[in-house]
Amino acid sequence: MSQEETGAEDRIDEESARKALSEQQMVRREKLAKLQAEGRDPFAVVTWKQTHHSAEIKQGFEALENVDVSIAGRIMSFRDIGKAAFIDLQDRDGRVQVYLNSEGLGAEAYAHAKTWDMGDIVGVEGFVFKTRRGEISVHAKRMVLLTKALEPLPEKFHGLKDPEQRYRRRYLDLVMNPQVMETFKKRTQIIRAVREYLDERGYIEVETPVLSTIASGAAARPFVTKSNALNLQLYLRIATELYLKRCIVGGMERVYEMGKDFRNEGIDIRHNPEFTMIELYQAYADYNDMMELCENICAYAAEKVTGSTKVSYQGTEIEFKAPWRRLTMTDAVRTYGGPDFSLVKDDEEARELAKKHGLEEELKKKLKDCTKGDILNAAFEKFAEKELVQPTFIMDYPTDISPLTKQKPGDPTMTERFEAFVYGRELGNAYSELNDPIVQMDRFTQQSKERELGDDEAYMLDEDFVSSLEVGMPPTGGMGIGIDRLIMFLTDSYSIRDIILFPTMKPQN
What is the pLDDT of residue 19? Predict the structure, then answer.
């Protein structure tokens, strides 16, 4: 057969598949119309009382044998053996088998149930028993069609595997792929574990504005919107930092916020325009305290959800148990084959090193505008970042790329800042927070100049935040952890889209 003939045959098969699907949808609509004409409209059913779920029945069989239960779920398979039939019923916890026959249901109800389709949602009342083959099941005494599925489920053996369709139609992904349901259950457990760890240590969870007149607290490009009522340009927040530090000024001492941030930047396997972040701040603490807190939060969540601080991520074993490795940024660059920046005297010498080592691609602005700190950071990204597989704290970032951070005593070129890295990816960022309002205003002013030079990720000036510092903020440690990335590691998920229920997608044509 020629290539042209093969292509034509494929197109005919695709057209037949579309036609078959359309015919199935039509048949289901006809069934619905018939039910409604008979006064059995499933969409008129308003409630169903569940007493048990599938997992409870299987795990508690000894106590539930011969006990009446009421369950509900979606029909995932229907095996008709003549005088009886078996259904696999799927609920939030998994599947349980339902046995039905005319003796238990009555002839009319049994005949009616045999007209139902895969994907239909039903309620079942019956008693728990074990079949001759040893499968825990529910012997139906009453069954009600609660919802008619008008679209057939994906074909059994091929399922729903195309990633694009899985993300777009997550509801089908959850129905067809049990491991996806488990991932999102774990997501909830991980978030709960992080909150639990902090709540038990006296942290107060707060909520701060999502809309603000200033987008600050991170180096990122914001989403812009407008308030019609106020005739005011607003930004979706890129971080919660500056509001949370106002809470510290107000005397809360330990605060955190778990919520969405929004950054108008690239989309890839690690980045989604909206993502979940936790930021926390502790008065009378510094970045050393934040390191200890970070490693303990992650180890606690890992053990709570997976049963161990050691997890497998994409075939690599990751050990989250404290203490994590600690390296300065300068030492990390030198350790992994880059230049020794401790010997670099000034910006001009650093620019020469950047040319020599081909760092232009990592720099976020023109080389002539770059400082030694910019270039050290670029060298870190090129030489060291990908090597940090096991959890590692990279400490002591340059002052000129850390505008909200307190300087290291005795070295004004460096700050008490760290970033946590796992599998070559940033997991968290933390500081000994700058609490000097005069220095903070100077830093913001310098960032404003960077914006004027075209850096739209530079920090915006927040005068009210500076005013809050003038009231007095105690020495404070602060940290942000990317919750989505932590969830990726603890669920062995390749892409951030695998752990966000409804990731940002382009509309389909």
Answer: 58
